[in-house]
Amino acid sequence: MQWALRLESGTGMRHGAPVCAPRRGNCRFTIAITGCWPGMAWCASCWDCLQQVKQELAMEPLGHGIALQFVTRLAEDAADQAAFISGWQQDYAQISCGLFSGRLDELCLGRLQVFREYSARETFQLCQPWPGSIWFGIPAPGSGERLRFHGRSVPPAAVLVAMGGSDFSLRTPDDFTIYGVVLEQAVLQQRHLQLFGRDMPGAWLQTAAVQLPQASHLALCRQLGELLALARETPDRIGRQLLLDCSADALLLALAQALPTTLAGRDSSSQRHWQWVEQARQRALQPAARQLTVEDLCRELHVTRRTLQNGFQEVTAMSPLPFLRALRLNQVRRLLRSPQGAADSIQQLAEDWGFATPSHFSYDYRRLFGETPSQTRQRPQR
After folding, report:
1. Quick one: CA dihedral 144, 148, 149, 152, positive or negative?
2. 123 and 95 in contact (C-beta within 8 Å)?
3. What pLDDT score does 218 carry?
């Protein structure tokens, strides 16, 4: 096999890129990953080429000697989907109307995981990646204006960043797809140094939204999608290992083209809004004989109705009462599907969560979840 070396200008790379000349016209796709800069042809039957690349660039596999797996999981309930991502602590609540469907494709090993998550309905999510990691979330193109990350709207073509061991929130729109790449912090720092010869930016060590050029964002989503599709077809451990390494490097190469504007953390106003929503959310997650009112919240939080409304719109893209009602309906749904609520009647569970009128409860429940409480109770318990 013959190799041609080329150096891509303007990328800050220190290495040449081996090009697999024999397969240039036969590969499934061309992709900028793992030293395979633009022009590197790669196909499913060309693992020898990729291993040669790794040797040329003297890069250690990210998960050498660690068990590796690819899984696809399907969900018909937001709470079920919250448990899908390996090693994460999560809580999801469905907040838009209709039957829920979701899917997770995940390729993971000890120090790195790559996944694609889809949800058909709007959700409010509290997420915590595994300790010591850094999560990069890449919303697919067309995510919609209603996407919120940590209580703030997300700019187009963004990569979301959050530290492992700490909570962040997502308020996702209908028909939402997001790619995720999660690495140990030390591994990320080492990989960045290998690729670029310098330390990684400090913005990657805090909750932030890093904006990419639109073309780079589109290319990254396409690359990660193709890598996961190829992983599904590749039972070979070495092949999947290379795909994981390629995913991490595709992310780093895309982030190297980030625009100067970075949305980091929350300002004081956004922080207050987030605190109001979180306090109200905690109240809504406690059983109560009556529903919370706007007056109750304004009195407890010492804010006006207008201020409360603006804060909820910023963080959740919803008004306070519909949001809190949806959270409580999700709590009833969890009990209907768990042994904990098996001994109580549907009416009793509804009353315990502030739904005093059975007909109103049944209407609201069916409208949100696309099925009756009785149909939910007939589902397998969790």
Report:
1. positive
2. yes
3. 95
Take residue 255 and report the two structure tokens written for it. 């982030």
Q: Residue 241: what residue type?
A: Q
User: Cα 40 from chain centroid?
Assistant: 29
Mean pLDDT value across the chain:
81
Query: Any idea which residue has 């290495």 for tokens?
Result: 15
Take residue 91 and report the two structure tokens written for it: 């809580």
pLDDT digits (tens, 9 = 90+) for 311-337: 999 999 999 999 999 999 999 999 999
How far apart are alpha carbons 32 and 43 in whole angstroms? 13
**In what side-by-side order are the strands of the sheet with 168-172?**
89-94, 123-128, 168-172, 148-149, 152-153
Bridge partners, 93 (sequence order) = 124
Q: How far is CA 118 from CA 104, 109, 281, 382, in A?
A: 6, 21, 24, 21
Q: Give the span between the Cα atoms of 166 and 133, in whole angstroms.
A: 10
CA–CA distance, 58 with 66 (Å, rounded to integer): 19
* Calpha distance 245→111 (Å, rounded): 11
The number of C-alpha atoms within 13 Å of 82 and in the hemisphere containing its C-beta is: 20
Cβ–Cβ < 8 Å for 46, 20 = yes
pTM: 0.82
What is the rounded distance in angstroms from the CA atom of residue 286 to the CA atom of residue 212?
A: 41
Looking at residues 77-89, what average pLDDT do you find? 95
The domains found in the chain, sorted by start residue, are 3-57 (no CATH), 69-264 (2.60.120.10), 268-377 (1.10.10.60)
**Residues 249, 66: Cα–Cα separation, whole Å:** 19
Tokens of 40: 């590197």
Residue among 214, 194, 212 at smallest CA distance from 203: 212
Query: Do 162 and 168 touch, CB atoms closer than 8 A?
Result: yes
Residue 57 one-letter amino acid: L
Query: What is the percent of the chain with per-residue pLDDT over 90, rounded to a whole number?
Result: 53
- Position 1 scores a pLDDT of 25
Give me the residues paired with residue 170 across strands.
125, 149
Residue 155 CA: distances (Å) to CA of 122, 142, 236, 262: 18, 11, 38, 9
Question: In this predicted model, which residue has the larger pLDDT, 242 or 198?
Answer: 198
pLDDT at 133: 94
The Cα 124–Cα 285 span in angstroms is 13
